[in-house]
Amino acid sequence: xxxxxxxxxxxxxxxxxxxxxxxxxxxxxxxxxxxxxxxxxxxxxxxxxxxxxxxxxxxxxxxxxxxxxxxxxxxxxxxxxxxxxxxxxxxxxxxxxxxxxxxxxxxxxxxxxxxxxxxxxxxxxxxxxxxxxxxxxxxxxxxxxxxxxxxxxxxxxxxxxxxxxxxxxxxxxx
Length: 174
Prior knowledge:
Elements lengths: L1 H10 L8 H10 L4 H14 L13 H6 L35 H12 L4 H8 L3 H14 L15 H16 L1
Helix pairs in contact: 1-3, 6-7
């Protein structure tokens, strides 16, 4: 076998290593290439037992004991119970997707009319800025909250109060 390794190392220049394991690995990796094919085919013919042509179920017990352990039919592993699954986490929607309660709506309208900024209203109601802004836009579009003509931080003008009152009365008619 050592002669075979030396011959493989001489035939294949990239297999010349001082480490025996490297030579062994290189020998088997280059066995399909042309310079080393003759060496490997001769060694494979001389070392291959004739009983490997048969399937393991057709062999006698003595022949089975001579075969390497890899060619024996593998026994199925004993069945194990499946691992316990973690309990499913119930999906909790984010706060901004939940509907506005009546208390929140009243608080929002009071804060908005008093001139608070969106981020201040959001902090007070513990909601996101975008949800507060969307709520303001919806209420404005429906006529519940009139536009501030004088800007945030100032009370509504009488015209805005009248516009808000008329919008609510029109909504009640429907």
